[in-house]
Amino acid sequence: MLKGSMVALVTPFKKNGSIDEDKLRFLINWHIKNKTDGILVCGTTGESATLTHQEHKKIIGIAVDEAKNKVPIIAGAGSNSTDEALNLTKYAKKVGADYALVITPYYNKPTQSGLIQHFKKISKAVNIPIIIYNVPGRTGINILPETVVEIANSCKNIIGIKEASGSLSQATEIMSKAPKGFSLLSGNDQIILPIISIGGSGVVSVVANVVPKETHQLTESFLKGGLKKAKKIQLELYDLIKALFIETNPIPVKTALNLMGLIEGNFRLPLCKMDKKNLTKLKKTLKEYRLIK
Predict the structure, then answer these.
(1) Predicted confidence band at 29 (pLDDT cuts at 50, 70, 90)?
(2) Going by fewer Cβ within 10 Å, which terminus of the chain is more open, N or C?
(3) Whose CA is closest to 183, among 162, 167, 165?
């Protein structure tokens, strides 16, 4: 079972738009040193939608190579095409990723039956632990709790879900019916603690990009029975989490990492630099958290 704080890692780009491999390797090591429990590459925060398949595979390979089994690598391997998702999942397995994160197909808006067939096809073809990624706000489709449970019962290597619907009711229903050992991971930083309290095992986190130690401590504290400490950290991080979603993710978090001197703040269109007003608000928050001077 995946436990703790899994960072949804940004993808650093150079000014010319190419992948900054040196910064990517630096970030992976920085997270290992700062106690991050797992690293997701090529997710939403990693701007997967603007990566070519060749780049997607390159990043997964770099992450596996640089992590050297010190932390689990979760490879974002989803697509709105089942065959494309299958291809990326096969590659993740081939290069030694520990898990594959497979998003519900976006834009197509499949039925629940289509979702079941999608995940079953990938699961049967690739022997790698798979995590379902449910983020209706991005995909236009919500995978229902009963669908998740049916998939989990039918596919033994589908071991968990990154639940980013923001619905505690939905997450609770999944955990009340899912098979033993099924992992529930929060996909929303605002509700890490509530998700863990109903049986979740951790978070796939955006805020962990800038405060990896604190996010690790939040999850570790609660999982070890330290509710008071976990509650304190969750509430302390609230304003920072809010600031990191002042514009579309990952614009604010990449901007924050740039202001912290960790990466260049480059994006691929249609994502672009922050509005000046929002940038001022973000800087103010980062100063309050002593992340910049």
Answers:
(1) very high
(2) C
(3) 162
Give CA separation, 243 vs 43, 47, 169, 252, in Å: 20, 19, 26, 7
Residues recognised as catalytic: 133, 162
213-226 pLDDT, tens digit per residue, is 999 999 999 999 99
| Topology adopted by domain 4-224 | TIM Barrel (3.20.20)
Q: pTM of this prediction?
A: 0.95
Q: 41 forms bridges with which residues in the sheet?
A: 75
Q: First and final CA of the chain: distance in angstroms?
A: 39
| Residue 68: exposure state from Cβ atoms within 10 A (0-12, 13-18, ≥19) | exposed
For 95-161, give the DSSP string.
HT-SEEEEEPPPSS---HHHHHHHHHHHHHH--S-EEEEE-HHHHS----HHHHHHHHHH-TTEEEE
